[in-house]
Amino acid sequence: MNKTYLKLSLDLDFVLIAITASLKDYVLCHKINTNLSFNFEKIADHEVYFKINEPALAFSKYYFYVDQGENEYYIVNNRNSEGFLIPEMNRVDYFLIIHNYLDPEDLNYIIRGLNKLPDIQVAAQVDPLRLKSKENLVM
Fold first, then answer.
1. C-alpha angle 73/78/81, rounded to 5°?
2. 3-state SS of the chain: helix, strand, coil percent to 5?
3. Which of the four, 27, 64, 117, 136, has the lowest number of CB atoms within 10 Å?
């Protein structure tokens, strides 16, 4: 009998910025909107199933779309009361995920702008391919 295998590949073609900030998610988004001229809005939570027979864990998610360049920006909380979205990065509070091409100059502007906010301890780019739990970031 022949066996057929299904090979899945994840679309990890996005920029990932880890943010450490001891702020509520809506406060963080407000500060980013005000200081960096973004317009993040709350959307449905990002749900991840860690175990088959258990309900999904929900992580708050915010969205912003830019027509010019067709970039999609998401801010996703890394922690909730039951665990972490990316457990190996348990010191990170939020992830900024940017879909579509982003000019390196624009990326540096965003990272510098985030690091200038007094309530953000650090914002740094992370390679999603190096994460063990990278599948949890697929939107």
1. 135
2. 25, 35, 40
3. 27
Quickly list DSSP for 86-132.
SGGGTT--EEEEEES---HHHHHHHHHHHHHSTTEEEEEEE-GGG-T
Instruction: Evaluate whether 84 touches 78 at the Cβ level (below 8 Å).
Output: yes
> What does the alpha-carbon distance between residue 92 and residue 19 come to, in Å, rounded to a whole number?
6
- Residue 16 tokens read as 């990932």
| C-alpha R_g of the chain | 16
End-to-end CA distance of the chain: 37
pTM of the model: 0.88
Strands 71-77 and 94-99: antiparallel
| Pair of tokens at residue 73 | 């920006």
pLDDT digits (tens, 9 = 90+) for 20-63: 999 999 999 999 999 999 999 999 999 998 888 888 899 999 99
Contact (Cβ atoms closer than 8 angstroms) between residue 77 and residue 24: no
Task: Tell me if 62 sits within 8 A of 77, measured CB to CB.
Answer: no
